[in-house]
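pinging the channel bc i need a second pair of eyes. not urgent but kinda urgent?? the chain im working w is below, pasted from the shared doc
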Amino acid sequence: MIDGGPAIETGRLLLRVPRIGDFDRFAELIGNEEAARHIGGHASRAAAWRRFLQQPGAWALQGFGMFSVVDRDTGLWLGQAGPWRPEGWPGNEIGYSFHPDAWGRGYATEAASAAIDWALAHLGWQDFIHCIAPANLASQRVATRLGSTLLGPGTLPAPYENEPVQVWGQSARDWTARRDGRGASC
């Protein structure tokens, strides 16, 4: 079991290591055909359980993984966001996926921004990416708001090697310059 782990607070959100109590909402996300179509496809509750265990496992073995994103006021699990680097992945990813009832409220941008700051400070990454399905316009808008640009097509490892993916990203230098109000560097 992961003991505590890091926690990040933003204006509206708490980002923390996943807990067992997050599973029901995660299963709803993965069980929703529309919500899960760009994140590996919808799955049964039993299959969602196995996917849920990936993030606590990543935290336990790698020392990082996606954070559970929780509403600070209500404690409601909204989604997940954070660093993600499975074997064979095309780069250091900051990923994000949210429960449908959390869509359209700016949570993904707020959470991903905090997760990027954390990853750059604690993991020493010099750049980061977002792997986004070409049809996932909402995630592309989040990436754009984060300052990332389309770097080109990418390839994911099995079992997703036949799924089209675009790689969006930026350097740590550009992120830091943008966050410090200096604009993107050349």
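so Helices lie at 23-31, 33-36, 45-52, 54-62, 107-123, 137-145, 172-179. and The radius of gyration is 15 Å. — does that match what u expected or am i reading it wrong
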